Amino acid sequence: MPLAYFLHSAGPAAAPVRLLGWALAALCVGVCIAIAVLLVLAMRRPGSRVARARTGEHAVVDNTGDRDAHRIVAIGTAISTVLLLGALVAMLRVLAAVADPPRAAALSVRVTAYDWWWKVTYTTPSGARFATANEIHLPTGEPVQIDLDSADVIHAFWVPALAGKTQAIPGQVNHQWLEADHPGVWRGQCTQFCGAQHAHMALEVVAQTPGDFAHWLDVQSRPAAPPANAAAHHGEQIFAAQCAACHTVRGTRADGAQAPDLTHLASRRLIAAGTLANTSANRLDWVAHAQRIKPGSLMPDVVLTPADAHDLSAWLDTLQ
Questions:
Q1: Among 108, 111, 106, which residue's Cα sits nearest to residue 143?
Q2: Taking every annotated instance into account, which residue ranges of this chain make up the domain Cytochrome oxidase subunit II copper A binding (predicted)?
Q3: pTM for the whole thing?
Q4: How buried is residue 248: exposed, middle or buried, by Cβ count under 10 Å (0-12/13-18/19+)?
Q5: Fold of the domain built from segment(s) 230-316
Q6: Above 60 in pLDDT, residue 96?
């Protein structure tokens, strides 16, 4: 994940978290510096074990400094208590600030975590529902509610530039909201260790102008276009025979529910939950070598002849 995504915010739900992070980082650095300085001063203090070893002096029992030591401990404890209470108050204030959006959410999106990908379900203004995968689109300048759950184990949803972390728990729906100040693409990640491919469980949030988002929503809600030529038609048949049990492509016989919806696969930037760029070559590589690219995933390697691979690729290219 690029460092800039962590150090900068692009929306009102992330700004308070970023400031809190910088404040806590400064507090930790300050504490470390203070401890180091006090340690050096104690080592250089006349009568200390280090000072005696340097000068060759013998140990002398002297209890006159006990009261000074107790005073230093008391002052340090008081300062630590004040700082920790201040940090607690700051964290509670940030939690309150980001708990709810400043105005009603313009859109509600259901995000379900799987090992190891994200299902994203939209409901259009007309009431139609469709699903995509590993990519959340939202309009700029509008809060969007994210309803989080999990289909298997505990995951954690985090898009650093737009919001803090929220866990996705089986049997429970947690809520978060995202809002982007301007158009852009931001990476998200599962941050709760969830198995062998935890590191390859990413997603992207694509913020668009309201007009562009409305157009994207309209296109995504449509079924897949029919095959345009004989090769693509044969590719659709191969998909129906090899992949339809797990994947859905709306407008075809494929209606599987265990894997990502591929109705508009070719319109996405990445595949395999952010592991590969979405190109024709990478799509075929993923189909043929999923267990090499992402060992342990539920996607099996699919053996195809060169001719079948060509036709399947021709059809997948049409899923715009």
A1: 106
A2: 104-219
A3: 0.83
A4: buried
A5: Immunoglobulin-like (2.60.40)
A6: yes
